[in-house]
Amino acid sequence: MENQLAIQKIENFEVGEYLDLVKTAKEYATFARSFNTNKSYRSDWDDFVFWCQEKNLRPLPALPQTIVVYLISRADNAWINQKGKLQKPLKISSLSRRLTSISQAHKLAKQPFDKNCPEIQEVWKGIKNKLGSAQIRKDPILLDDLRKMIESINNDNSKANSLSGMRDKALLLLGFVGAFRRSELVSLTIDDIKFVREGLQITLRKSKTDQEGKERIIAIPYGSNILTCPVRTLNDWLDCSKISEGLLFRPINRHGQIMDKALTSKSVALIIKRNKHLENQKNSFSGHSLRAGFATTAAIFGVPEHLIMKQTGHKSFDTIRRYI
User: Fold this and answer.
1) Is 288 an active-site residue?
2) Active-site residue 208, yes or no?
3) 92, 182, 203, 255: which could form a disulfide with 287 (CB 3.0–4.6 Å)?
4) In what residue span(s) does the Tyr recombinase domain sit (predicted)?
């Protein structure tokens, strides 16, 4: 019986263990291994290096002009890959992942690279406009962005210890680690959450892909850093808000009063877009960026696809591969 319970705990928290929010030096070592083992990211980087060799350009560190020409080339033209196979022009989702892979490779090598620089972002905007809005996917919020978003709230004297600041931190961290859809996040109630020794167990009673109301348990582990721990941050929000029943995340009016209704999905997007870390960036962020960020970050750290799907609730490998 004890062995069965132990196995159950491992299964419930397997994904969370991969995504402990703060890893410092260990994080980079993990990334170094996972970058080589994750086929998608390794393939992206190999293709960029292959293209640079053909053009006699330097891949690391790459100049913004090199990145721009590469993206345009892969968006507009078919090409023959290293195995001699004809490849079709890439769609926005694949181009976005290429840009992320190149950025992460530079970060790992401790080489300068800013994918948000004007030279890259102006062309990136044009590529998205040319290929059409139907293909455009919102940019993922990656782990480093998430940390800086929390830091920006903590460093803002008007928000750090305010009700809205406490709520926003809990919402951002829980939304990322739980890989929730906006509609799932705003519909959570006190009855859906359970504090356990390992962290949190959240019962998702209905989702976009499961309208029959079958319950799904989401595991949220403790983080090793108090400031970015989703479990402790949620507990802080509940303590200061005095919410003991009903909806978990609620609007706060201009008088600082918590309202007795749910946040809207649009409100989640606004909380993200208005964060001071993101407001000056030209990336296309939305309420979906937390969920997309979890899947992308998990893939970067080498988490197997089936475990990512366990946390996100995706039923199709094709769907999850759009993120990774």
Assistant:
1) yes
2) yes
3) 182
4) 136-324
CB 21 within 8 A of CB 173: yes
Give all domains of the chain, ordered by start, each with its CATH number: 33-131 (1.10.150.130), 143-321 (1.10.443.10)
Paired sense of beta strands 193-196 and 199-204, if any: antiparallel
pLDDT digits (tens, 9 = 90+) for 129-186: 877 644 446 688 888 889 999 999 999 888 878 999 999 999 999 999 999 999 999 9
128, 250, 291, 310: the active-site residue? 291
Q: Judge whether 106 counts as a catalytic residue.
A: no
pLDDT, tens digit, 9 for 90 and up, residues 79-101: 888 888 878 888 888 898 899 89
What pLDDT was estimated at residue 1?
39
pTM over 0.70, yes/no: no
Active site residue 216: no
Exactly one of 74, 181, 277, 310 is catalytic; name it: 181
pLDDT for position 282: 58
Annotation marks residue 222 as catalytic: no
SS (H, E, C) 174-202: HHHHCCCCHHHHHCCEHHHEEEECCEEEE
